């Protein structure tokens, strides 16, 4: 990567510098990350091999779980290792790569959540046309477009990052590399770059959140015409989606859709959406979804019988 600075590496300060707290960080986030990978892998495998989870909703849930795993992997392993390391050093190229991965899979998660809302809207508001509108071919095209959009977004972040000159110091007051902490170290006026950042990441987060909330309001409003049983099932599914949307977008908007101001809670807010939400998503989607739980039981029951 072309480097526009004299700095070749950065020192991540992490969540804390206290030795005892660092050990706690190591244990807590190792458990969180393990739970994230195991939970999302379980959902991915269940959807992949289950014959009962072939609907578009589970097709999108497959990619949400994949994005969750990769999104958490872009930050959690380094946070865990750095918690027990004497010096948390990250090279310039590794730092830029982390920015790319963080935004690629984070943006992918946003787009998949939107696609899941579209799927629920069509299923509830246009049930007769659902098989035609949400055909397998249409779902594949939508996922491909989501990947392309995510790649374009993350590439834009890299372009902005590569424009930043670093002359020292090289201490990043964060547990991962992202544009906001990097902007503080740049030896140039970063007002315009921060404006571009807010208009890019901030606009994506804010506009997507508004679109999702409006879409779910329309969906919930249309449920008044459904039967009690159908209304109960739809409410259960939509409630899970709404919980995930609020948990993910709240912290994202707080971090990205604001002027270049630093708050003491920034790192903990970032932890919540980069590590906390990917951990909670499998719990939300399995505990509140009878179809997923039944499919898991059948799949692993068959697997145990065949061994």
Automatic annotation (TrEMBL):
Membrane topology (UniProt): Multi-pass membrane protein
Any Gene Ontology CC annotation: plasma membrane
Record localization: Cell membrane; Membrane
G-protein coupled receptors family 1 profile domain mapped to chain residues: 39-285
SUPFAM superfamilies in the record: Family A G protein-coupled receptor-like (SSF81321)
Gene3D superfamilies listed in its UniProt record: Rhodopsin 7-helix transmembrane proteins
Membrane-spanning residues: 24-45, 57-80, 100-118, 139-162, 201-223, 235-257, 269-287
Keyword entries, A-Z: Cell membrane, G-protein coupled receptor, Membrane, Olfaction, Receptor, Sensory transduction, Transducer, Transmembrane, Transmembrane helix
Pfam families: 7tm_4
Gene Ontology MF annotations: G protein-coupled receptor activity; olfactory receptor activity
InterPro entries in the record: GPCR_Rhodpsn, GPCR_Rhodpsn_7TM, Olfact_rcpt, Olfactory_Receptors
Family: Belongs to the G-protein coupled receptor 1 family.
Protein name: Olfactory receptor
Gene source species: Mesocricetus auratus (Golden hamster)
């Amino acid at each position: 990567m072309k480097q526009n600075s004299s700095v070749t590496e950065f020192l991540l300060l992490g969540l804390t510098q206290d030795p005892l707290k660092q050990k706690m960080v190591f244990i807590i986030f190792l458990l969180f990350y393990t739970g994230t990978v195991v939970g999302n892998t379980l959902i991915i495998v269940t959807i992949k091999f289950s014959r009962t989870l072939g609907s578009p909703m589970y097709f999108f849930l497959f990619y949400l779980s994949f994005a969750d795993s990769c999104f958490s992997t872009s930050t959690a392993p380094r946070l865990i290792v750095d918690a027990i390391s004497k010096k948390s050093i990250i090279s310039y190229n590794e730092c830029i790569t982390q920015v790319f991965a963080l935004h690629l899979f984070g943006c992918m998660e946003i787009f998949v959540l939107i696609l899941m809302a579209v799927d629920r809207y069509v299923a509830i508001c246009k049930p007769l046309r659902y098989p035609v509108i949400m055909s397998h071919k249409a779902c594949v095209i939508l996922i491909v477009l989501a990947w392309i959009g995510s790649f374009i977004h993350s590439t834009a972040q890299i372009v902005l990052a590569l424009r930043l000159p670093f002359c020292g110091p090289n201490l990043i007051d964060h547990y991962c590399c992202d544009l906001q902490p990097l902007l503080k170290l740049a030896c140039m006026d970063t007002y315009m770059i921060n404006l571009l950042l807010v208009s890019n990441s901030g606009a994506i987060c804010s506009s997507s959140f508004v679109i999702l909330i409006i879409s779910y309001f329309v969906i919930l409003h249309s449920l008044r015409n459904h039967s009690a049983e159908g209304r109960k099932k739809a409410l259960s599914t939509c409630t899970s989606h709404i919980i995930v949307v609020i948990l993910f977008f709240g912290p994202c908007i707080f971090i990205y859709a604001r002027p270049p101001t630093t708050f003491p809670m920034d790192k903990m807010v970032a932890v919540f959406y980069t590590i906390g939400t990917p951990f909670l998503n499998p719990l939300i989607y399995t505990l509140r979804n009878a179809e997923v739980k039944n499919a898991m039981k059948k799949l692993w029951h068959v697997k145990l019988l065949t061994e």
